[in-house]
Amino acid sequence: MSEKIFIHVDMNAFFASIEQRDYPKLLGKPVAVTNGEHGSCIITSSYEARAFGIKTGMRISDGRKICPYLVQRPSRPKVYAETSTRIMNILHNISPDIQIYSVDEAFLELTNCMKIYKEINHVIYKIKDLIYESENLKCSIGISFSKSLAKYASKINKPDGITYINKNNYHEYLDNSPIDTLCGVSTGVKSFLNHHGVYKCSDMKKLPISILSNRFGNIGKKIWLMANGNDFEGLIPDLNHPKSLGHGKVLKPNTKSSYLIKKVFLRMSNKLALRLRKSNYESNIFLIGIKIKAGWIQKKVKIEKATCNRNDIFNICLSYLNLFEKNTGIYQVQVTALNPLKKNTQMDIFSKDNDKSEVLDQALENIHDKFGPETIKPARLISDDTDSPDVIAPAWRPSGHRKSV
User: 30, 68, 357, 389: which could form a disulfide with 48 (CB 3.0–4.6 Å)?
Assistant: First the structure.
């Protein structure tokens, strides 16, 4: 059996690069992208900004202390999602064996395609050329015999680099690398490994795999195999049927305004209802979550009939919100439809109210499709002071139920 060939395509500073592409005056300048005009947290930054020490998660005010000329740009998630969709279509035409990992990275397995391409170099440079010609953006590519090593390789020669790791040279790359450079090694896992004398990948040989698997289960086994260059995981296909669909929003810390909190819940309910309808799903079980200073407080609400109606979902949120004291400080909210089912699998022929709401929702959806999602919305959201710009979720995909911002 021939050796497997995986490549990992990683777009370089994706959001910031799109801003520099679309606004040429920003080329060569340190750029930080934040969530909206008033966003205080840096989502990503250009390589010019990173050279000053700007990092994701840093506050824009702190960033300007070390880089006074830092340019703030509000994120444009719809533009990023549309750009990513075109890039993923290019990659899908290279190989049907693809796993879209996030909005700016994907794995391809070329094992079955090399009878067509013959030379791996031809494929790699074709990918870079096609993406650059289509989007005027650059990417880094890692090539290896395993997914985890391909992802690791793509980081080595950023930006715009190409790195090959094979079974003859992987020790040169892995052995002296800090253990937390591997994908999936969180702060907690790192502390556990350090406690057992594992600081770099080569130290993992001294630790039995059973210690990691007993503590972290399959994730522990995977990390042990990755550190030893033996990760055998293949591509993971996207689930056709979602286990849940949800939307949430981080609020200003300790928000106590009942009116403002209700507006946020209304906006999340509208977004969830539209997403359910677009994906042709409905649900009768909803998880409503509110995060206070002490942590998350969640309640699962089951209703008699499945719905994808925005008013039904919002009323569920309100019934839960009314249980809280008015002066409770709230930090985050979440509205999630659990175990969604395909819509209209069994219609209630006696329900006229459902018919009316269905006609209204369908009319609104048609208007949104033609003129944009913000064309018609509840009056209380016309002057939306919740500062709630759209974001791209980590689970975003270019099609299906995950195609949502």
Answer: 30
Q: Rounded distance, CA 286 to CA 312, Å?
A: 11
Catalytically active residues, by annotation: 105
Hey, what's the torsion of the CAs at 128, 121, 399, 37, to 10 degrees?
A: -30
Return d(Cα 351, Cα 354) in angstroms, integer: 6
Q: Average pLDDT in the 297-311 region?
A: 91
* pLDDT at 226 > cutoff 80: yes
pLDDT of 1 reads: 45
In 3D space, the residue among 162, 156, 170 whose CA is nearest the CA of residue 225 turns out to be 170
Cβ pair 404, 281 in contact under 8 A: no
Name the pairing type of β-strands 139-144 and 6-11: antiparallel
Residue 185 maps to which CATH number?
A: 1.10.150.20
Q: Backbone phi, then psi, for 142, in 5-degree steps?
A: -115, 140
Question: Nearest CA to 101 among 165, 167, 154, 47?
Answer: 154
Show which of 237, 252, 280 is a domain's final residue.
Answer: 237
Calculate the alpha carbon distances from 39 to 250, 369, 389 in Å. Answer: 11, 28, 9
Please tell me whether residues 45 and 73 are part of one structural domain: yes
Kind plus residue range of the DSSP H or E element containing 6: strand 6-11
If one compares 165 and 368, the residue with the highest pLDDT of the two is: 165
How far is 69 from 67, CA to CA, in rounded Å?
6
**CA–CA dist 100, 360 (Å, integer):** 35
pLDDT tens string 142-163: 999 999 999 999 999 989 999 9
For position 252, what pLDDT does the model report?
Answer: 81
| Of 29-43, 52-66, 170-184, 322-336, the least confident | 322-336
Question: What angle separates helix 77-94 from helix 14-22, to the nearest 10 degrees?
Answer: 110
Domain residues for the domain of 227 are 175-237
Q: Burial level of 70, CB count in 10 A (0-12/13-18/19+)?
A: buried
